[in-house]
Specification:
Blueprint (H helix, E strand, L loop, with lengths): L9 H15 L5 H6 L10 H7 L2 E6 L8 H18 L12 E4 L2 H10 L11 H10 L1 H4 L6 H5 L6 H10 L11 E7 L4 E6 H6 L7 H8 L9 E4 L6 E5 L1 H5 L3 H10 L13 E6 L3 E2 L7 H24 L7 E4 L10 E2 L5 H13 L1 E5 L5 E7 H19 L32
Parallel strand pairs: 1-2, 1-7, 2-3, 7-9, 8-10
Antiparallel strand pairs: 3-4, 3-6, 5-6, 11-12
Helix pairs in contact: 4-6, 4-15, 4-16, 5-6, 5-11, 9-11
Length: 424
C-alpha cells in the first residue's frame, strides 16, 4: 500500500514496530509465545500452516453517515461476487469468513448474517440484511426524541421489539462463527465486548442476540442506555452505543484472533490473516446540530485512527491482506452525507461511494487515493476468499477449530474487558 519511492525513517519505523508488536499484538510476550499451540506442533507441520490458508476476518463499522447502508451494500456486492466466482448461487457471507466484528449498525449486520437459523443456515443473506436496515431505519436509528420518552423509557422500544421478533431466543452461542460485538458499559465505565467464545465457556457471558443488538445500537442522546442481563442473570450491563467504545472494531477483531489460540491455533501474525474492514461514510461536519451528531462524528474520527494503526501493522505483508472500504471527503464533496438524507438518497450515495476510487492509509503520511475503486477492491478480495476456501480443501491441518461446547467455566478469548459487571 506504500509507494515504492516512499522512504520511512528507519529508527522511527523500528520504534513503531516494537510498539505494535509488543503492545498491540503481544508478540513480545514471552508467556504468550511459550503457550502458543503452534510451538507444540512438530516443525515439519509448520509448512502446512501456509497450505491451510489464512484466517478470514470481517469487520463492520458503526452506523456512520449512511446508517449502515454503505457496509450493507458492500456485503451485497461481495456475496454476489462469491456466488458468481464459486458457481454456487446459495452462498452466504458467513461461509467465507472465520470471524466477524461489528459495532452499532455493524453489530446488527453481524448478528443478522452470522446467527444460525432453524435450518442451520444464517438467518439472513446480505440482500435480506440490507432490506432489514432499509425497512427498519426509523425504528433503530431515528426513535422519538421527546423528553418524556427519554425520561419515562418504555419497557421495550420499537427497536427492542424488532430485535425480539427477528432473533427470538437465539443467544451468542447460536452464532455460526466467532462473533464480537462491542458496547460501552456505564457500570464499569469501560468497553464490553459480547463474544461467542466467552459465551461458550460461561453462561455469565452469554446474552440473547436481541439484547446484544439493542445494546450495541443504543444511542444515549435519544433513548438513554439499555439495561440487559446475561442468561444466568449474573452479568448486568447498562449499555450505550458500541460506536462510543469502538466504532471501528477491526483492532479488537485482530487482537481476538491472535490471542484466541483455542480456535485459531496457527494464526501468529497479521500475515496469517485476510481482513475486510467496512466503513459507512463520513458525515458533514457543517450539519452537526445535535449531541447525537457529535457522537457520530467522534466515532468516525476514531474509525480513521484504527484504520491508520491497522494499516501500519499490515505494512510488512506487502499484499492485500487488509482491505478497507470507506468513503472519504478528499474524494468528493458528495461523500459528506447530511443527516436529513432519505433512504433513497443513502442508497444512491452508497452506490456512488462504492464506484469511486478507494482511499488507503499510508504509514506516517495520512491517506492516498489508489487506482482501484471500492467495488474493484471487493471483487479482488472476493477472489482471495475463494482461493482460501479452495486451499483449505487440500490442507493437512485446519486453520480454524471452532468451539461448540462449554468444557469449563473459564474465559480464554481475551476479549472481555471487564469482569462480571454486577449482581442485582
Amino acid at each position: 500500500m506504500i509507494d515504492s519511492n516512499f522512504e520511512v525513517d528507519k529508527l522511527t519505523y523500528e520504534i513503531f514496530s516494537i510498539l505494535e508488536n509488543k503492545f498491540l499484538f503481544g508478540y513480545g510476550d514471552s508467556q504468550n509465545q511459550k503457550n502458543s499451540v503452534s510451538n507444540f506442533i512438530p516443525k515439519e507441520f509448520h509448512s502446512a500452516n501456509d497450505a491451510a490458508g489464512k484466517v478470514r476476518v470481517l469487520c463492520i463499522d458503526g452506523s456512520g453517515a449512511t446508517d449502515g447502508i454503505l457496509a450493507a451494500k458492500s456485503l451485497v456486492h461481495l456475496e454476489l461476487c462469491l456466488r458468481r466466482k464459486s458457481g454456487n448461487p446459495n452462498v452466504h457471507i458467513a461461509e467465507y469468513f472465520d470471524a466477524v466484528a461489528g459495532s452499532g449498525a455493524g453489530g446488527i449486520l453481524a448478528a443478522l448474517l452470522f446467527t444460525r437459523g432453524k435450518d442451520g443456515l444464517p438467518l439472513f443473506t446480505a440482500e435480506e440484511a440490507l432490506k432489514f436496515l432499509i425497512d427498519n431505519r426509523s425504528k433503530i436509528f431515528r426513535p422519538s426524541n421527546s423528553i418524556i420518552r427519554r425520561v419515562l423509557r418504555p419497557v421495550a422500544s420499537k427497536a427492542e421489539k424488532l430485535f425480539r421478533k427477528t432473533f427470538g431466543e437465539c443467544t451468542l452461542k447460536d452464532t455460526l462463527k466467532p462473533v464480537l460485538i462491542p458496547c460501552y458499559d456505564l457500570i464499569t465505565r469501560a468497553p464490553f465486548v459480547f463474544s461467542r467464545a466467552d459465551a461458550l465457556e460461561m453462561d455469565g457471558y452469554d446474552f440473547k442476540m436481541r439484547d446484544v443488538c439493542a445494546a450495541t445500537s443504543s444511542d444515549p442522546s435519544l433513548m438513554g442506555p439499555t439495561e440487559i442481563r446475561s442468561l444466568d442473570g449474573r452479568t448486568k450491563i447498562v449499555a450505550v452505543d458500541g460506536g462510543i467504545a469502538m466504532n471501528n472494531p477491526t483492532a479488537v477483531a485482530i487482537t481476538h484472533v491472535l490471542n484466541n489460540k483455542h480456535e485459531f491455533p496457527f494464526c501468529n501474525g497479521v500475515s496469517d490473516m485476510l481482513v475486510l474492514s467496512l466503513g459507512n461514510g463520513e458525515s458533514d461536519f457543517n450539519a452537526v446540530k445535535s449531541p447525537s451528531s457529535f457522537v457520530r462524528i467522534a466515532g468516525e474520527g476514531a474509525s480513521d485512527m484504527v484504520d491508520q494503526a491497522v494499516s501500519m501493522a499490515f505494512v510488512e505483508c506487502k499484499m492485500n491482506n487488509y482491505v478497507r472500504i470507506q468513503s472519504n471527503g478528499i474524494m468528493s464533496k458528495t461523500n459528506k452525507v447530511k443527516s436529513n438524507k432519505t433512504m433513497l438518497d443513502l442508497l444512491a450515495i452508497s452506490e456512488e461511494m462504492l464506484a469511486q476510487k478507494s482511499v488507503e492509509s499510508v504509514l506516517f503520511k495520512g491517506k492516498k487515493v489508489v487506482e482501484n475503486t471500492n467495488l474493484e477492491k471487493l471483487e479482488l478480495f472476493g477472489g482471495d476468499l475463494i482461493k482460501e476456501q479452495e486451499r483449505r480443501k487440500n490442507s493437512i491441518l485446519p486453520i480454524v477449530v471452532f468451539k461448540n461446547a462449554s468444557p469449563s467455566p473459564r474465559t480464554s478469548s481475551a476479549t472481555t474487558l471487564s469482569t462480571l459487571s454486577s449482581s442485582s
